[in-house]
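Supplementary Methods, section 5.1.

A reviewer requested that the exact input to the structure prediction be made available. We therefore reproduce it here, unchanged from the version used in the analyses.
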Amino acid sequence: MREKMHSVEVPVTVSFHDCDPMGVVWHGNYFRYFEAAREALLRSINYSYSEMAASGYVWPVVDTHVKYRQPLRCEETISVSATITEYENRLRIDYVVRNAAGQITTKAYTLQVAVEQASETLCFVSPAILLERLGVKPC
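The structure derived from this sequence is encoded cell-by-cell as follows.
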C-alpha cells in the first residue's frame, strides 16, 4: 500500500523585480517560488526549518532539476504546489507551477539530505523525526 503523499499549494503573484528585460520571470527566480511552497509544505507537517534545527538536523538541498515549459510574466498570478515524493533516504519534493488558466508552466524537484548538526555527519537514512512528522511508522 502506497503511503499518503503530503502536498500543499501556494498562490504567488509574479513581481516586477522577478522579471528580466523581456518581461518574463528570470529562470533563477523560480527557486524563490519553490522555496515558498517548500516552507509551507514543511510547516504543514510541523517540521519547519526552526523545528528541523531544534531536532538536531539540517537538510541542505543537494540537487535540483527544473523543466521550463512556458514563461511566466509580470503580475501574473500563479500557483505552486509542493509534494513530498521520497522520504526514506532523502527528501525529494516535486513542484508544479500552474498559471491562472491552470496550465502547467514549470515542473521541478529538489533533493535534500539529513545532516546531523552536532557532528556534521551525513545520514544515509532519514531520521525518525521526519518519519514521525510524516505519520509513517518505521519498519
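The mean pLDDT is 94. These observations are discussed further in the main text.
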